Amino acid sequence: MNIYNYELIIRPVNSFFFGGEKKFNSAEEGETNYLVSSMVVPQQTTILGMLRYALLMRQIKLEGSAAWKDVDLIGENSFDGKSTSFGIIQKLSPIYFKKNNILFEEAGLNIQIYKDENDNDVSTRFDLAEIGGSSHSSHENKSKVYFLKNYIPKQDQNHFLIDRTNHYNDAELISYSDIFTVCEQPGNKKDRSGKTSLEGFYRQTKYRMNPDFSFCLFLQTNNKIDLTNGDCFFATMGGDQSLFEVKLNYQNQGEDYFSLNCRSGDPKPNEGYIKFISHAFVSNSILFECKFSIIETASFRYIYTETAKTTDWNNVRTRKSVKSNTEEGDNRRPQMSKQIRLLNKGSILYSDNLSKVMAEIEKHEAYRAIGYNYYEVINQ
């Protein structure tokens, strides 16, 4: 099978909104939300959906004169937690940030920045330490208790970005506030007669990206994309159909190119830790292999569709599981999956058996195919 690699540069044209678990209209959950905030980074399934739609609409064209069937272009179905390829789309990388040809990734939750008594920024990276005692949180060694030696509980702990080529240059840490500007949008919903009510007031938080930055990720296909008529197109994504410019750059470096940009690292026995550079779907048992962890979780849902059967696109059906898709007639409608909790990117896992932890992360091939479950081993 031929392999073709592309760099995707994605820039929002204006402010954007990527919806999450909290929505204005939550009648099915029995609650109403008046304050809703966008995620700053789109989900991997959002990027996958955008690319599949662009292929169907021939915004992305393939080389050659062959007439492609829809199912061959984009696969039999959307992401379902089991499929590992989607037509010509073989792999997606995690989403990075790019500025002046430099890629930035999550620095990790083991970093803290705060102000000292002279109002200067101080950056510290946590050191894992141990003392004798009894630990109910460690399944590996109950005779030890682990703690973060440099952690200051009264100081904020936030996400930062770092140059991918230099993991330890903390002076180059970038805050998300350096990339995004908050855009508040208050409003009032009206009924068909034009009347408003107190229940109709809302405030929506959108984001605007610094023009020096862009989203960046890598795409691997099994057919070559035709870029003779241009390498750029516009796409809409997110709950408000925000507009984005998408640029494709062909990279002729074969299979190794994708692996290089999604490197994992080779663990040394009993050394280092794992840092997630993307969200990750893992079982709870992975924590039993860790002596310590610094983790956050993120809510995740996906919308399941079948290429040849789904027709009622505007009528999404909420289900606890996509298994109900087998019910007669249901496959005409897109179906919302149950809520899934992912480990947030930047989460840190410490273990004396890194190889076993890595195997647990990598066994979820469907999630890795779309850019989840990517990590780096940082050798200390």
Written account of the structure:
With about 375 residues, the chain is mainly beta. About 10% of the residues lie in helices and about 35% in strands. The chain is built from five helices and 29 strands. The protein has helices spanning about 45-55, 70-75, 255-260, 355-360, 365-370, and strands spanning about 5-10, 25, 30, 35, 60, 90, 95-100, 100-105, 110-115, 120-125, 130, 145-150, 160-165, 175, 180-190, 195-210, 215-220, 225, 230-235, 240-250, 275, 290-295, 295-300, 305, 315-320, 335, 340-345, 350, 375-380. Strands 1, 6, 7, 8, 13, 14, 17, 19 and 20 form a nine-stranded antiparallel β-sheet that branches. Strands 22-28-21-29 form a four-stranded antiparallel β-sheet, with no helix packed on it. A hairpin with a 4-residue loop joins strand 2 (about 25) and strand 3. The radius of gyration is 22 Å and the shape is globular.
Instruction: Please give the alpha-carbon distance between the first and last residues.
Output: 39 Å
Structural class: mainly beta
**Helical element count?**
5
Low-confidence stretches: 324-328
pLDDT averaged over residues: 84
Summarize the structure.
This protein has helices spanning 44-56, 70-74, 254-261, 354-362, 365-369; strands at residues 4-12, 25-26, 31-32, 35-37, 61-62, 89-92, 96-99, 102-106, 111-115, 121-125, 128-132, 144-148, 160-163, 174-175, 180-190, 196-209, 214-221, 225-226, 232-237, 242-251, 273-276, 292-294, 297-300, 303-304, 317-318, 335-336, 340-343, 348-350, 375-378. By secondary structure, it is mostly beta strands. Strands 1, 6, 7, 8, 13, 14, 17, 19 and 20 form a nine-stranded antiparallel beta sheet that branches.
